[in-house]
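call fold(seq) -> C-alpha cells
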Amino acid sequence: MELDKRHIVLGVTGGIAAYKAAELARELLRAGATVQVVMTQAAARFVTPVTFQALTARPVFCDQWDDRVGNNMAHIELSRAADAILIAPASADFLGKLANGLCDDLLSTLCVARECPLLVAPAMNVQMWSNAAVQRNVARLRDDGVTLLGPASGDQACGETGPGRMLEALELVEELVAFFTPKRLAGRRVVVTAGPTYEPIDPVRGITNRSSGKMGFAVARACRHAGAQVQLVAGPTALPTPAGVTRRDVLTAREMCDATLAACAPACDVFIAVAAVADWQVTNASERKLKKDEVGTTPELAFAENPDILRTVAALPEAPYCVGFAAESEDLQRNGEAKRRRKGVPLLVANIGHQTFGRDDNELLLIDEHGTQPLGRASKDALARTLVAEIARRIGADESASTP
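ret:
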C-alpha cells in the first residue's frame, strides 16, 4: 500500500466540506496510513468526533486542555510521531491563523509547534477564496513552505460555482502519495505512450488488441509522482487521466506516432513506449460498413506497415533516453533482447502479454546490454515505481532525492 507505515495527523476545521474528511480518513487507512484526527470546535458542529473515532479506531482530540496525553501537552505530542499534518478542510479563518502564526486552539497550536510537513486543502465559498486577504495568506503559506492541495473549481454547497471546492478524498490521497515520493525525476520531461491502437476496417470495425492501458497509465503516474513533467499519449481506453499528467488521446498508430513526435519536440528527457501499437494498418478500409449480403464473399484486406514509433524516437538527432515495452508470448529474454537491439534502445521491459492484458498486476523483465533483471509479480503501480527508480538511476538523475 502506497502510504504504508505513514502516520498522518488529519486536522478538520469548521466548514460544510468537513463531511468529506470522514471519507478521507477511510481512504487514508485503505492506502495503509494510520490516522490521528484533531478537530476544531467548529468542525465538531458539522461532523461529530464519534464518527472519526469509529473510522480510525483512535481517540479524537478537540480540546487544547485535553488531559488524555500524559504530560498534558497534546499540541506537542500529537505531531511528534507524524509524517505529515493534513488540514482538510482548511477554512479561510484557519488559513489566516496559519499564515500569521496565531494559535488559539489545539489544532492551530499543534501546527505551529510541529516538526513535520504541513499540507492544507482549502475549502470555502468562491468569493471567500478570491478575497484579497485570503490570497495574501495563501501566498504567505506557500512562501513558508506549506503545501497547498487545491482547491478545485466546481459546484459549491452555497449554490455557486467556482474555485474554492475541496479536493475529493481520493484526489487528496493521490496528492499525499505524490508528496511522499522521492523526486528523482524533478525537472525532467517525460513522454509515455499507453493503451492499444485501433486500425479501421470500416466505420464500425477495426483491428486492435487486448491492452487495457493500465501499465502505461501506472508508469505515467509514477513519473509524475517522481517530479517529472509528464505527457501521456493514450490509445482508446476509458482509464482516468493520472493527476498532474497532460494527456493526448489518439486512435491509430499513425496518430500516436505524430502525437508522440510532437510531444518529444523540442526536447524531452525520457520516452517510455508502453503502448501496444498495431504493426499494420488496413490500406483499403471502407468508408461505409461492409455488409455480408453486399460483399458476397469474405472481403480481402490489404495491409501496410505502421511507423515504428520507438525506433523513430530513438533515431532522433537529440534522442531522449528510450525505454521500450515488449509483450511477448514466449521466450522473453531472447525475443526481448532481439527487439531491444532492433529498436536501438538502452532498456527494454518484457512481459508475457496474454498474462497481463487487463489485469492489475504484472511480472516484468528488464533487459539491457548487460543482461536481465527480473521484477517479480506485483501490482502495476508498484512495478511502475520500481521501473521509474531504475530509469532515474540510469540517466543519472538526482540520487539524493529524499522522501519527506
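The chain has a mean pLDDT of 91.
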